[in-house]
Amino acid sequence: MSAIDNSDLPHPGDDAGTRHRVRMQRRKAVVDAQIAAATEERGVLLVLTGNGKGKSSSAFGMVARALGHGLRVGVVQFIKGRYATGERAFFRRFPEVSYHLMGEGFTWETQDRERDVRAAAAAWEVAVGMLREPSYALVVLDELNIALRYRYLELEAVIEALHSRPAAQHVVITGRGAPVQLIEAADTVTDMRGVKHAFEAGVRAQRGIEL
Q1: Which of 7, 100, 153, 185 is the most exposed place for a label (fewest CB within 10 A)?
Q2: Which of 70, 76, 44 shows the shortest CA–CA distance to 140?
Q3: Residue 166 burial (10 A CB sphere; 0-12, 13-18, 19+)
Q4: pLDDT by 10s per residue, the chain, length 211
Q5: Which contacts qualify for 64-68: CB closer than 8 Å, 24 or more apart?
Q6: Which CATH number characterizes residue 81's domain?
Q7: Same domain for 98 and 178?
């Protein structure tokens, strides 16, 4: 019979501080080993999906982080209409950011599939140009998942362009309902789960929060 590991259990004479220190030492050893093993350096593909709030907000947080390192950033916004947002007003101040708002509005607003397909195709053309340009360290394709979900674009062509991008380029894709194939192609995937939202209680979108 194998011995039972009681190392994490309290022992007579131990205090909470000692037990905490021992646990954190073990945790640090695990984390340090993981960091030492992560030697590959290359561009990563991140997919932010799910019904919860915060997908685009997270992506624009990474834009700010990239700017902090002096990197060039490309942003293409699919689907979203041309209403004023804080991120657009802010990031367009930076010459390092190439910002393109290409949507015609959410699908329930346009109610015109052909118009939406044309808008998505035009946005994808801009995006492809960025995905071929090594000078862009980070490319954000905001709400691309929606365009893929409604089949405004060919998924296979999108994935091929992502695979063919410059080796050091990072890409962030947002939107609900990310296709399975895109999730499989991604390096990092976050599925944001909605727990509670002020809008459901009748609170309109707020500047600095949703806008």
Answers
A1: 7
A2: 76
A3: middle
A4: 455 555 555 555 568 888 888 999 999 989 889 888 878 899 999 999 999 999 999 999 999 999 999 999 999 999 876 667 899 999 999 999 999 998 665 555 566 788 889 999 999 999 999 999 999 999 999 999 999 999 999 999 999 999 999 999 999 999 999 999 999 999 999 999 989 988 888 988 898 888 8
A5: 66/137, 66/138, 66/170, 67/94, 67/96, 67/97
A6: 3.40.50.300
A7: yes
Angle in degrees, 0-180, between the axes of helices 155-163 and 113-131, rounded to the nearest 10: 10
Q: What is the C-alpha to C-alpha distance for residues 48 and 54, in angstroms, rounded to an integer?
A: 9
| Residue 16, in any domain of the structure | yes
Q: Could you tell me the end-to-end alpha-carbon distance of the chain, in angstroms, rounded to an integer?
A: 61
Same domain, 22 and 74: no
> What's at 49, amino acid-wise?
T
Length of the chain as a residue count: 211
- Say how far apart CA 121 and CA 193 lie, in whole Å: 29
Ramachandran category for residue 75: left, alpha or beta (phi over 0 → left; psi -120 to 50 → alpha): beta
Count of C-beta atoms within a 10 Å radius of residue 27? 10
> Residue 28: which domain range?
10-39
- Whether the pTM exceeds 0.85: the reply is no
d(CA 21, CA 29): 12
